[in-house]
Amino acid sequence: MIHALPQLQADRVFLTDGGLETTLVFDRGIELELFAAFPLLDAEDGRAALREYFAPYLATAREQGAGFLLDTATWRANPDWAAQLGYDATALGRVNRDAVAFARALRASAGDMPGPVLVNGVVGPRGDGYVVDALMSAAEAESYHAPQIGAFAAAGADMVSAITMTYAEEAIGIAGAAAGASLPLAVSFTVETDGRLPSGQPLGEAIEQVDAETLGTPAYYMVNCAHPTHFAGVIAAGGTWRERIAGLRANASAKSHAELDAAAELDAGDPAELAASCAALREALPSVTVLGGCCGTDARHVAAVGAAWSSAAVS
Questions:
Q1: pTM score, whole prediction
Q2: pLDDT band per the 50, 70, 90 thresholds, residue 262
Q3: Closest Cα to residue 130, out of 165, 103, 100, 106?
Q4: Left if phi > 0, otherwise alpha if psi is -120 to 50, otherwise beta: which for 20?
Q5: What whole-number distance in Å separates Cα of residue 12 and Cα of residue 74?
Q6: Phi, psi (degrees; rounded to nearest 5) at 11
Q7: What pLDDT does 1 receive?
Q8: Taking the CB of residue 186, how many other CB atoms lie within 10 A of it?
Q9: Alpha-carbon Rg of the chain, whole angstroms?
Q10: What is the mean pLDDT of residues 251-272?
């Protein structure tokens, strides 16, 4: 039952949004302290900015006949980051519930859609998404992330996604917390230019470790916050673990994490090139149905990726 997600049951593409934080900061000129979007939920102008941000993605899903995963703006909404922004445990629980309520209202306002729209509670790493820090055991990670995931469940989220995971143990803990809340889970790892996690572990080994230590709790895996050329080599090398990857959310830029971190301007890359790089992985990743973007991407990139993937599937 925990794996009964429509993106795993139907032969249909599901789109996501792109780079929420990079779009708001670089394209919309909105200051996000500590790169956190969740405080926008506490002001009407912030909510308006989020509605405006998601509108073209929902329109693209409608145009392409796709399903849609509607993310909560909660990638930074965990205790360590929230404390730096003045949110105590009570306020953090409230804003995580509010994030789900906001996404549910946004789904309702979208009207009839050609495919399912799922409210996806987003869990980010305790530390930085580009480097391995704030290392936890699996048990520590489960305890740390359980309140956020519990808030998602209480507010009516359809699933939860752990986005930009840098090491396996944190993902294992999140899997335990998601199982405890009876929410289906997607685990998304990020990789460096060599196709390895920031921890140094190969992508395939990380997926196999999480599956082995959680008895296959994650409904599926994704790769995000990396350009397809960064992990195409490890995908091409083979392995049954590739069958567990059902989502790609690539960066627009082929630069490394270190280069992106030091950049003063947004590298939006080329939507057509990004789409072609993703579509080139279609044969090696037959389980992928979820497609979207990450840093530097906007609705143009996601539209191009969705169209190219669908074309590759029928060509």
A1: 0.96
A2: confident
A3: 165
A4: alpha
A5: 26
A6: -85, 70
A7: 41
A8: 23
A9: 18
A10: 84
What's the half-sphere exposure (Cβ side, CA atoms, 13 Å) at 98?
17
Q: Are 114 and 59 in contact (CB under 8 A)?
A: no
Per-residue pLDDT reduced to its tens digit, 179-227: 999 999 999 999 999 999 999 999 999 999 999 999 999 999 999 999 9
Question: Which of the four CATH numbers 3.90.1150.10, 3.40.1350.10, 1.20.120.530, 3.20.20.330 does domain 12-314 have?
Answer: 3.20.20.330
Paired tokens of 173: 């803990």
pLDDT band at 3 (very low <50, low <70, confident <90, very high): low
Pure H helices in the chain: 6-9, 20-22, 44-64, 79-84, 89-109, 138-155, 168-180, 203-214, 228-236, 257-262, 271-279, 299-314
Tell me the pairing of strands 67-71 and 14-15. Answer: parallel
Integer Cα distance of 108 and 29 in angstroms: 28
CA distances (Å), origin 302, targets 68, 79, 90, 118, 270:
11, 31, 36, 17, 12
Does pLDDT of 2 surpass 60?
no
